[in-house]
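Example record

One chain of 240 residues, shown exactly as stored in the release files.
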Amino acid sequence: MLAVFQSRNPSILRLVAGHANRLCQHEATWYDVRLRNLVYFVEKRLTLGRHVATYNTSDFRKGLKVQIDGDPYLMVEWNFVKPGKGNALYKCKLRNLIRGSMLDRTYKGGDSLESADVAEISAQFLYRQGDTFVFMDNESYEQYELSAEQVDDGWKYLKEGMVCSMMLFNDNPIAMTPPNHVVLKVEYCEPGAKGNTATNVTKPVKFETGAEFMCPSFINQGELCKIDTRTGSYVERVKE
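Predicted structure tokens for this chain:
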């Protein structure tokens, strides 16, 4: 137990706190006190171990993750402007990592932005329950839930057991990204013409995930196809 309190690994601490919280909901009252104390000490350790950094305008660069008004943003573009008189200006374009919206901001030299506690982990897709998608951290085995809105078009490529990239903000999941290429089985399509191997003639094809993609007309039901998740386009037919 002492090793748990002394641990500096956030994944381990989150895992212990999660298990203890779940146990608190089911164990007898006399045991609740011990479990709740465990939760308190672990969460306290997490809070003490977290520090907030700031970025000065001299640190601005493409790809920087910052926090504005409580939301995480990715700096996708910045330009240095030196007017004839006055302070230097930094014109920035930032993308909200939760909603995907864009924000234009101008900062004066010497201004600073708070860093965003954003991390990416590998998470395995377990199952879907209604509009909720459940994933599991491959290292800590902690489970995370994403809404259909957060998953967005990613549902089209998700199969049970698939390992995806998940983004966490303040240890909470906010988005996921499937692998660049996935192999999916054709669930239904119109029969392909024999001997037709032309790739410029396409047809709608429904796959095992329920999604439809345009594929060459020679594709048949039951076959496997590689799909590019970045564009939603057909890449090639795959042999079993």
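Notes: Confidence is low (pLDDT under 50) at residues 1-9, 24-34, 44-49.
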